[in-house]
């Protein structure tokens, strides 16, 4: 007699788990071969140098080992991943022209409303290509360029060629090489010298297809004295097959420029999230990272700041929430490569129902980086006695004319605090939620409004049914 397996549904993630029918105009076969790379390049009508770049990246990918020092990646089978899916639409500049099913998805995620109320420009990617892009005329009049990477490669080829994968070269690691081979979609932003962009730009990446990969490339150049806030959102519905996200973000912050880069990655729990993000900051420039990592089966994500100009500054504020079946290996890297540079790291993680939150950080001070200052704080809160949390802060100091501080705290949620709140008439569920919200509040207040709301909603969803 055949025994049937019992499948228990995951917590309903509401709008994030709404699936559209898997329709497409074009897709590659599963797997990764030279023929598939050539096919992607032909489909995109790319210049010869980009096709050659892809093929060289594939060669590097095939010769590099899978990393074994972090989360377990043994369940990721690239031979069963579709690396390129062109949705059944061209890019539109009006939401009215976007196909109804795709438009409804983004409406439920709140993207058109956010654009109307609080954004200066929006890009929306669906599977492998950007399906909607728009920017306010006043930004165009100031010389700001905000478009998708496919358009940028055609219209600003010289700029793309100068910067593309120079900060994160394909030989950096295996999944950077994979990205170089199959990248598609993403955002290109150029802010001219002295231009202050007061209203944020936002790109949202939605992966709808089962068993697929998303490999968007984001390239942002903020010229001397300019200022920008860029917001990135990511999500995908839950499937019973593994999906892969291996995007790439390259940020160039020039002298006296400021860039704030805010991200909420809310992938489903069948996703391997292996994203790579890096910024290089020139004299007296500033990079501010706001990072939220939720969802995904596995994450390995460490945004990196290279402070190469004297007086350059980096701030990292991050929150990670690992629930049942999740191993979220996250953190940040900072390289002080010039004198009088400063950095601040404030990282918080939550784990529940056996989830594993791992903070992995690197702080490196070069020999010439005298007079630099850095403060690192990482705190972890476990909501039960079956969850796990670790911190691995690596600090490399190559001169002693510096001011470095580090602190780390790991602990369980306090039974005494729960009891105290319950004695004041608050339910156990709400007491736990209040403590969690208080723990993440320093992060929440840094998020754009709609993402702060999203974070609180996620906490409510994730804490359902966890008491007792």
Count every helix, treating DSSP H or I runs of 4 or more residues as helices: 11
How would you characterize the largest beta sheet?
A: 13 strands, mixed
Question: In terms of structural class, how would the helical and strand content be classed?
Answer: alpha/beta
**Residue-averaged pLDDT:** 87
Radius of gyration: 22 Å
Please report which band the strand proportion falls in: under 5%, 5-15%, 15-25%, 25-35%, 35-45% or over 45%. Answer: 35-45%
Assembly form of the protein:
single chain
Quickly count the domains: 2
**Which shape, going by the Cα principal axes?**
globular
Provide the low-confidence segments as ranges.
1-12
Note down, in words, how this protein is organized.
With 468 residues, this protein is an alpha/beta fold. The protein has two domains: 16-301, no CATH class; 414-468, no CATH class. Helix content is 24%, strand content 35%. It has helices at residues 34-44, 48-63, 100-108, 111-118, 137-141, 149-155, 157-163, 174-182, 415-423, 428-444, 449-463, and strands at 26-27, 85-86, 121-126, 129-135, 145-148, 187-191, 201-206, 213-214, 217-222, 227-235, 243-245, 248-253, 258-267, 271-273, 276-281, 286-295, 298-301, 304-307, 313-322, 327-336, 342-351, 356-365, 373-382, 388-397, 403-412. The strands form three sheets. Strands 5, 6, 8, 9, 11, 12, 14, 15, 17, 18, 20, 22 and 24 form a 13-stranded mixed beta sheet that branches. Strand 3 and strand 4 form a beta hairpin. Helix 2 runs antiparallel to helix 8. The longest helix has 17 residues, at 428-444. It is globular, with a radius of gyration of 22 Å. The model is unreliable at 1-12 (pLDDT under 50).
């Amino acid at each position: 007699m055949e025994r049937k397996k019992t499948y228990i549904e995951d917590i309903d993630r509401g709008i994030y788990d709404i699936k559209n029918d898997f329709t497409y105009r074009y897709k590659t076969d599963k797997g990764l071969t030279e023929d598939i790379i050539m096919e992607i390049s032909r489909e995109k009508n790319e210049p010869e140098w980009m096709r050659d770049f892809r093929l060289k990246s594939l060669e590097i990918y095939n010769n590099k080992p899978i990393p074994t020092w972090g989360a377990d990646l043994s369940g990721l089978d690239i031979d069963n991943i579709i690396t390129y899916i062109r949705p059944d639409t061209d890019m539109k500049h009006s939401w009215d022209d976007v196909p109804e099913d795709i438009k409804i998805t983004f409406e439920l995620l709140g993207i058109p409303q956010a654009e109307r109320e609080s954004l200066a420009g929006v890009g929306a990617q669906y599977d492998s290509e950007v399906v909607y892009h728009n920017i306010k005329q006043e930004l165009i009049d100031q010389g700001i360029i905000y478009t998708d990477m496919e358009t940028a490669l055609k219209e600003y080829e010289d700029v793309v060629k100068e910067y593309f994968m120079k900060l994160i070269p394909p030989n950096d690691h295996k999944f950077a090489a994979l990205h170089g081979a199959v990248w598609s979609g993403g955002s290109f932003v150029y802010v001219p010298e002295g231009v202050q962009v007061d209203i944020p730009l936002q790109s949202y990446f939605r992966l709808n297809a089962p068993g697929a990969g998303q490999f968007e490339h984001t390239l942002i150049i903020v010229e001397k004295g300019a200022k920008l806030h860029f917001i990135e959102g990511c999500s995908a519905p839950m499937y019973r097959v593994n999906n892969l996200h291996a995007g790439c973000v390259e940020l160039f912050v020039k002298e006296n420029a400021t860039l704030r880069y805010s991200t909420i990655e809310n992938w489903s729990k069948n996703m391997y999230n292996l994203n790579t993000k890096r910024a290089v900051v020139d004299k007296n420039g500033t990079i501010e990272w706001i990072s939220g990592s939720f969802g995904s089966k596995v994450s390995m994500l460490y945004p990196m700041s290279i402070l190469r100009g004297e007086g350059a500054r980096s701030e990292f504020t991050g929150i990670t929430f690992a629930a049942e079946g999740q191993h979220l290996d996250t953190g940040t890297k900072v390289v002080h490569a010039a004198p009088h540079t400063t950095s601040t790291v404030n990282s918080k993680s939550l784990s529940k129902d056996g989830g594993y939150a791992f903070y992995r950080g690197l702080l490196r001070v070069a020999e010439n980086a005298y007079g630099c200052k850095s403060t690192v704080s990482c705190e972890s809160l476990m909501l039960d006695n079956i969850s796990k949390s670790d911190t691995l802060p690596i600090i490399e100091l190559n001169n002693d004319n510096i001011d470095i501080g580090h602190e780390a705290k790991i602990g369980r949620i306090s039974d005494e605090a729960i009891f105290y709140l319950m004695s004041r008439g608050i339910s156990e569920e709400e007491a736990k939620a209040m403590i969690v919200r208080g723990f993440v509040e320093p992060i929440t207040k840094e998020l754009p409004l709609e993402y702060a709301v999203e974070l609180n909603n996620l906490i409510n969803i994730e804490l359902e049914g966890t008491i007792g």
